[in-house]
Task: inverse folding
C-alpha cells in the first residue's frame, strides 16, 4: 500500500539563467526626423523594397527635408558577406553622417 501523504519531489531549474551583461545606455531619441539622414538597412528578404518605398513616401510627406540612404549602399546584411558588413556598419553610418537607421524586415 502506498502512503498518500508522501509526494514526489522534482528538482526545478530556472530557465532564464543568470544575467551576464548589464543594460547598455541607449542613444538619445531624436526629437524629429526633419532634416535628418536616415539609413535604410535590409536583409533582402520579404519584400523590404516595397515596404521601404511606402515608408519613404509617408515619411517624406511628413518630414519634407528628410534624406534617405538606400539599403543598397549597405549591402545584403543576410548574405554571404553578413559578418563583414555588420562589422563595418558603424563606420559606414558615421562616414555617411546617418542620424537614424530603420532596420527591416526579419520576417
Result:
Amino acid at each position: 500500500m502506498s502512503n498518500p501523504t508522501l509526494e514526489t519531489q522534482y528538482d526545478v531549474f530556472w530557465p532564464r539563467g543568470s544575467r551576464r551583461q548589464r543594460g547598455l545606455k541607449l542613444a538619445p531619441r531624436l526629437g524629429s526626423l526633419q532634416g535628418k539622414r536616415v539609413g535604410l538597412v535590409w536583409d533582402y528578404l520579404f519584400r523590404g523594397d516595397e515596404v521601404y518605398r511606402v515608408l519613404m513616401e509617408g515619411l517624406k510627406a511628413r518630414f519634407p527635408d528628410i534624406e534617405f540612404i538606400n539599403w543598397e549602399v549597405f549591402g545584403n546584411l543576410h548574405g554571404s558577406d553578413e559578418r563583414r558588413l555588420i562589422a563595418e556598419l558603424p563606420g559606414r553610418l558615421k562616414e555617411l553622417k546617418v542620424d537614424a537607421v530603420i532596420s527591416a524586415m526579419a520576417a
Q: What stands out?
A: The mean pLDDT is 86. The CA atoms of residues 14 and 85 lie 36 Å apart.
